[in-house]
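Contributing new complexes? Match this layout with NAP.
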Amino acid sequence: MSSNGNTKHVKLLVLGSGPTGYSAALYAARAELQPVVLTGMQLGGQAALTYTIENYPGFPDGVGGAQLGELFQKQAEHFGAVTEFASANAVDLSQRPFRVESDSGDYLADSLIVGTGASPNHLDIPGEMELTGRGVSYCATCDGWFFKDKKVVVVGGGDSALEEGLFITRYASSVTVIHRRNEFRASPILQHRAKEHPKVNFILDTVVTDVIGNNKLEAVKLKNVKTGEETIYETDGLFIFIGHTPNTEMFKGQLDMNDLGYININEKMETNVRGVFAAGEAADPHFRQVVTSAGMGAAAAIQATRFLEAESG
Ligand code: NAP
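Output block (do not edit by hand):
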């Protein structure tokens, strides 16, 4: 790692500004650790890209994802957390204080909480990359508006696919959900809503194999996985919601993780490196909810506080 000569020493550095990061920062700030939050590329994390969050307790009528993110930030800053609009680029966890290289300079941190979350998976098929932003999207809240009165295809069978697909019905003339099986892993309430919606229809046991278009999406090539039949399906939009990959590449070789890249932690959010904690979707392949990520962030901060107290004797 190189140093840019602008090194700041902090007691606790939090990587990530989603529910995990700001919940950790809130608890750490109230423990007077003056935590610094490096926001990463997306302030508020994935939750901020969600139009409405209906299952975060305390908001019986739902709350906008971006609005909830702002509330998390405001509450943490109220108690002294500091936000730096920067991404961590490299870490050296071989000795304490840990060194973190970021867009806004280098940090030496007595303890670290990794709340870097996860990013949407790609289909990795021909045409997908070339037509991203030209009809192909991974974010309904960001791009749904562009598809007013247009035909849209959504890929996936989980909560994201159905929730985001339902959101796109606000704009699109039709939303066709394409799923590789004939059973959904999405929650029953979302399946029910999608099946009842007049604009939503389904193509099951089918995968998208090609994204077709000259400078702009025109169609997708579909393959029925049971019959092998291939068809061309004309569409204006292709929204892909097929799960996530944790943003943990930077920690490979330093933090223990599983085969999918989720950081291994114990029940105290401790990683294999003393003083480094991980929480939220970077470490959680099971629950991946705003409320569970926020809970894990709080737990990580409580444990980091205990760690720093024990270290200072
Ligand atoms: P997910 O639950 O992992 O679902 C991914 C979907 O994509 C699955 O249906 C999967 O098919 C399909 N898929 C995966 N790879 C594929 C490929 N290469 N080609 C075609 N299809 C593919 O992911 P998610 O929907 O993003 O949800 C992630 C987590 O967030 C879940 O725990 C979910 O409950 C949570 N979440 C909750 C809410 C909510 O509570 N309102 C909203 C959004 C997300 P198979 O089913 O065949 O594996």
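Reviewers usually confirm one structural detail per submission. For this one: The domain at 2-119+244-312 is CATH 3.50.50.60 (FAD/NAD(P)-binding domain).
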